[in-house]
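Two records follow; treat each independently.
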Amino acid sequence: MDGPLPRWGLSSTIKAPLQEILGFAAWHLDRGAHRLYIYLDDPESDAFDILKAHPRIRVKRCNTVWWRNHGGKRPEKHQVRQTINATHAYARKAEVDWLIHMDVDEFLWPETTIAETLAKLPPDIMTVRVRPSEALAGTGKSYKAFIPTSPDRQGIIERLYPTFGLHLRGGFVSHTAGKVFVRTGLEGIKIRIHNAFRGQEMNPGETETDHIALLHCHARDWDDWLAHYRYRLQFGSYRSDLGALRPPEKGGMNLHDLFRWLEAEEGENGLRLFYDEVLSDAAGLPDRLRAEGLLRRHELDITGTIRKHFPEMP
């Protein structure tokens, strides 16, 4: 591509501690983001002034006034709040050529640079999917790669997770859909969590890239996973309304039902059995992933990037 590289940015609705917010922002500034559109789900977050002072960040407090101006009242479900804010960011006067919606525990990892990858796309490509790699809990350096669709995909998953693989979509505890970059300037675009819609058309002009990974840090360790477990079970990625991998008559359970069953049968020990087989980097999973060619190693220097982009922080 001749001429300047495309500019890209991201939007995110965030409720998290200050250091996590700054780490997420700093990492993506360091990857070359031209704009970060951050919507603070906690309007009293102490991150507001720090973010607002950065020239490449646009930040909004999602307070009563904000929601009064965007639908009348604050939606109960955080997924709805995310989609409203992501669509708002997309509808702004364009400051970037591509925009992606992400969560605070997701980190883009490009092979070269994100701008170079986007620059190579033909002009008829409007949406670009990036697939996730799910972090193993423990050292923070090991990840399980996305398993592409193939005749042996479920066989691979059941070799990796002999006890629980029947219930794991793509072998992940979190999503396998990834997120999408959307070319800006398209009319009538509505952003959802994992997709973009133009009317009834999902992801117009879509392609997928394997040159950018979406590192999803779903759980740092056992205590962190357990601390988020109840919320996810009721409202998040383990909630009851999400579909199972296979129908109940064939033994299928979604994660909500699986976790409820484990707790009823074994209590917290049952949850620990699941964690050790599916999430932990200290219980044989890295070796099984390596044998299948699915172990990835990435080291995120979050502390260093915070110092670089927010030097006023102690």
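The next record belongs to a different protein.
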Amino acid sequence: MTKAFEKILNSKIIAIIRGVSSDDILPVANALLKGGINCLEVTFNHKDDIDGVNTLKSISKLKNKYENELFVGAGTVLTANQVDKAVEAGAEYIISPNVDEDVIKRTKELNKISIPGALTPSEAMNAYNFGADIIKIFPAGNFGSSYLKSIMAPLSHLKFAAVGAVDKNNIEDFKKIGINIFGLGSNLVNVNDVLNKNFDNITKKAELYKQIIG
């Protein structure tokens, strides 16, 4: 197990930062750090930022400012080319909503952590066979803990994370079935809080989720 992999396992929470300008990325990161969260996923926006300029700039700024404090990854990565760009900007792990062989294999070629999204046993095993380190069950909250438990039972040798519609109301259910890595999006980093410069609220939510997840 690599030190990078251990960081994610120990952190338990990956904060998903979506729709945040690179101009606001540092205060958002600071707010999360104050709340005890040090794993951040900056997502690509394939609709409004096709070239990923904002995402790559944000990752680079985080890496330069918080290199020894934050563990930064790229999210919604759909192509091997995006893997290259994200890693060049400073991403330590690559997260996708789907299982893409090229993305996973390129991530591993660059010695980074691969976290693809899957929803079925076949997808999970394909991801694992391609080299994935952690399987992101997505969208976990919409399907519930009983569904995840059914998938995990025959695939107990895989490492799973719950992402998508995960909140304070269902985390305990996921913990009971053995999930201990969570991706938290708008329930943690809400764009309205960012636009209103309400960074203290982000810190409070970070503290709350740290307390719930442990």
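Discussion point: The chain has a mean pLDDT of 96. How would you locate this feature using only the token line?
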